[in-house]
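Help needed: design a sequence for this.
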């Protein structure tokens, strides 16, 4: 019975430990911004960059310069996600005819 209580306690504690995993510091912010820029450049080379990704990266850099690392990290993650999705979209649709190119 004690083992069951310990198991339940561990199950309840594990999700709460993951909340603290989001670190908003200068190193994390700059690292994610660089990753977003690299993937955005890849999407540009594929001619499949999304419209707002560049603006989001620019806003993330502004927030980083103002030392608002939480906002900067959040925006950089959003930009990184958009850049990755643009690359993924290209990979899925590259065999289809692109009449606008």
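Sure. Designed sequence:
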């Amino acid at each position: 019975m004690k083992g069951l209580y310990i198991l339940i306690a561990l199950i309840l504690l594990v999700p709460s430990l993951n909340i603290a995993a989001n670190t908003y510091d200068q190193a994390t912010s700059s690292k994610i911004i660089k990753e977003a820029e690299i993937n955005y450049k890849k999407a540009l080379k594929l001619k499949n960059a999304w419209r707002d990704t560049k603006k989001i990266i620019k806003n993330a850099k502004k927030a980083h310069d103002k030392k608002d690392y939480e906002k900067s990290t959040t925006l950089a993650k959003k930009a990184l996600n958009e850049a990755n999705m643009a690359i993924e979209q290209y990979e899925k649709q590259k065999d289809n005819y692109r009449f606008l190119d």
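The chain has one domain: 23-93.
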